[in-house]
Amino acid sequence: MAAANVRRDGTGDPDPCWMMLRRLSASGRCSYTVGMTLRRTSVFRVSLLGLLLAGCAERPAAVVGEPEPDPEFVAAVDPTAPFTLTDQTGAEFSSDALAGKVWLGAVFFANCPGPCFRENQAIADILKEIGDPDFMAVSLTCDPANDTPEALGRYADRFQADAGRWKFLTGEMETITRVGTGLFKLPVEVGVHAEKGVVFDREGKLRGGYSLTDPKRVQLLKDLIREVLADEAAAAGKGSEAGANP
Known about the structure:
alpha+beta; Glutaredoxin; five-stranded mixed β-sheet; three-stranded antiparallel β-sheet; 8 helices; 10 strands; 17% strand
């Protein structure tokens, strides 16, 4: 980056807030923690944050893995390791419940300034349109300190979420980070996440994913879910026929 393009502070060093905004904008991430910090800075910086959040809400993210999570962390994580968290009803949720299901995973937080509502509205629409009982959704909060089961219950009510098919999960941040980064292959930090949905088949394999805030990408996500459901239903049918005709 040329020196002329770098905003500097009063000491002549690169302005750390400006550099953080550039990194977040380039990665497509949203962060309320940055916003809380910038509220204490100049009006110019707060205006920059508003532009960034608006851009983040509109920026389409095409495929799983952009932005990439920390490769060193992912390498140390076993994506097949089981996990246990707490859902919006206060009940314990084990990843064992996902066995044999086609499911959609996503990361959000309830106090997100806008994009998360669009993300979860898209999930609500997907669940309504694809009513297959073998399909469900799992939404992980990346702000567990604030998103208690009670808070998630109120949030889920905004989308008329069926707790049997759509799990809003909270728990220890360490577990959430492991699941989001290691299993979903998405960046997860406190208040920071990618606005994507990722699809897993009945064997727990990640099959792909798309942005949940871009209508065209959401349609591709629906197509992928239907494809996985159809492929596995056909495979199950062939297995039954083979068993009946040795």
